[in-house]
Amino acid sequence: MRFKLDYDEFSDVLIIFNTKYWIFKRNFNLNPNISLIFDNENQIVFIEILKASRLFKIDKSSLSKIDSLNLKITITNEVIIFNCEIIILTTYMLISKFLDVVICNFCALNQQTFEIAIYNLN
What we know:
- By secondary structure, the chain is mostly beta strands.
- Helices cover about 5% and strands about 60% of the residues.
- It has one domain (about 5-120).
- It contains 2 helices and 9 strands, in the order E-E-E-E-E-H-H-E-E-E-E.
- The protein has a 5-stranded antiparallel sheet with strand order 1-2-5-4-3. Strands 8-7-6-9 form a 4-stranded antiparallel sheet, with no helix packed on it.
- The two termini are about 20 Å apart.
């Protein structure tokens, strides 16, 4: 699967999406700001992060300069673990920011580990 990301500075939304054609099956909200979209094969194909600048604790203009992203989502019978790292290149430094969320798997999502890395976006 090939993934891309897009950040809309005006709405402060970061999306990570599969570029391949897929059929929507289910939406799951990890919390009010993070949503996972699953396809008809129960694979994660779309991730939406609302209020991204606040969650990553970085200004909106910097989020527009993401150079790479590492994302790992682990779903077990008990918990869902969401780990996301973004790397931003500025004129003077490299900035690494993390977003980690752990919640109970109360919806009995299928067990899986989902990992992607997207590099050299700028």
